[in-house]
Amino acid sequence: MKLAAISDYREAARRRLPHFLFEYMDGGSYDQVTLGRNVSDLREIELRQRVMRDVSSLDLSTELFGRKQKLPVALAPVGLAGLAARRGETQAARAAEAAGVPFTLSTVSLCSLPEVRRAVKQPIWFQLYMLRDRPFMEDLMAQARTAECPVLVFTVDLPVAGSRYRDRRSGLSGASGFAGNMRRVWQAMQRPDWAWDVGVRGGPHHLGNVAPVLKGKTGLEDFFQWLGQNFDPAINWNDLEWVRSHWKGPIVLKGVLDAEDAREAVRCGVDGIVVSNHGGRQLDGVMSSARALPEIADAVRGETVVMVDGGVRSGLDVVRMLALGAQGVMLGRAWAFALAARGEAGVAHMLQLIEAEMRVAMALTGARNLSEITRDILVKRG
């Protein structure tokens, strides 16, 4: 199929990935109400077309956390993304570097932080969960310092895991032992291209950052069991002080969906926040990121960097999020599906599409640079 738009990559990924992997990347929690809202609420935001504005020269560059970048986007942390293509996180990181945008490596990536760092010239961002195993967290932050990661993305909306029924139905979770393994192997056999590229040639098949604490266990059920036991429901604002004691660079708090929480994050001294509902994978029924963003951006404007993720499937969506108050947009499923479909080339193409679509949206709304992308370019109703 011809991959002409970012939305095409989802279908291409569905055709290439084993069923259990596609369901993991595509799915949300419970009835997936919030997952759907993330996309639909964003698309319903109308742009205000303007004319005669001299848009012959457009500037899409920005600066986030002291570093210049070509576009106001970053690749968000996506767990298990390395299974989408052979050594997938290394491919995505190279594509992001070539496009001049940050790549964020998940704690639960297939490729380890040192491996991904070796694949690129510039340091990458690193994402961290709050876990019961504090020595493990300390070790990960030490590795991130060694890798010269400029930004720590601290995900805080997982004190407990939301129930993802699609994962249970597909056999990714809840299907342990020999029967579960055979079910996933059978699904992989239905995708011979993936089975050869990733299953045969893509080893080692262990979760690079987590492998030391799994102590030789490599099964997906071992990973999910460890993860479920290690999310820390006791996480509170005082834990930020502990993280700060081990990390001197910028800390970005990911998973903020309430204006009061955003204000508290500012009081605790974070350098940035990501307005996020975890891609609709945690508490189903909460607001979409696009609906939550304006109030949060107004609450902390000028006091911390506001980023956002959730439902972004085009450069037009990036412009919408910027107009709602974000200074940067994190792309998740967009790059994961592109990686699954075409590897590094797919992620590079996805970012090219983001830039091209942003240019059209900016030109036709009369915004010549990012500072001119404000709520004035949105249609006001009521």
What gap, in angstroms, lies between the N and C termini?
A: 42 Å
The percent of residues in helical segments reads: 40-55%
Total count of helical runs of at least 4 residues: 16
User: Residue-averaged pLDDT, rounded?
Assistant: 94
Low-confidence stretches: none
What is the architecture at the second tier of CATH? Answer: Alpha-Beta Barrel
Strand content: 5-15%
Short description:
By secondary structure, this protein is α/β, with parallel strands linked by helices. The protein is built from 16 helices and ten strands. It has one domain: TIM Barrel (Alpha-Beta Barrel), CATH 3.20.20.
Keywords for this entry:
single chain, 382 residues, alpha/beta, TIM Barrel, eight-stranded parallel beta sheet, two-stranded antiparallel ribbon, 10% strand
Set out the fold topology.
Elements: H1 6-16, H2 19-26, H3 33-43, E1 62-64, E2 67-69, E3 73-75, H4 88-99, E4 104-105, H5 113-119, E5 125-129, H6 134-146, E6 152-155, H7 165-170, H8 177-189, H9 192-200, H10 211-214, H11 220-230, H12 239-246, E7 251-256, H13 259-267, E8 272-275, H14 289-300, E9 305-308, H15 315-323, E10 328-331, H16 333-365
Parallel strand pairs: 3-10, 4-5, 5-6, 6-7, 7-8, 8-9, 9-10
Antiparallel strand pairs: 1-2
Helix pairs in contact: 1-16, 4-5, 4-16, 13-14, 15-16
